[in-house]
Amino acid sequence: MILKILLKFAVLNKREEVFHFMIIINIKDGESLDKALKRFKKKFEKTGVMRELRSRQAYEKKSITRRTEIKKAIYKVGLNRETI
Length: 84
Fold this sequence. Notes:
Helix content: 40-55%
Structural class: alpha+beta
Number of domains: 2
Order of helices and strands: EEHHH
Mean pLDDT: 79
Distance between the termini: 52 Å
Strand order of the largest sheet: 1-2
Number of strands: 2
Strand content: 15-25%
Shape: flat
């Protein structure tokens, strides 16, 4: 017997278009609910819905967004130089 867990949710993109996503998790015989929930959480995180919601809570100017991306890139390059 295989059970399915379905979650349907809607996401607005930057153009205010609505996209509907559905996450399907197949639960096999003898599989614990904890493992199924763990797989569900991983799939849900990959969709990036929570990240998008948090970013939409407060408006951030494009110049500030660009600046933070540049700072992150500089930080990553610095990390790579230290490991070499």
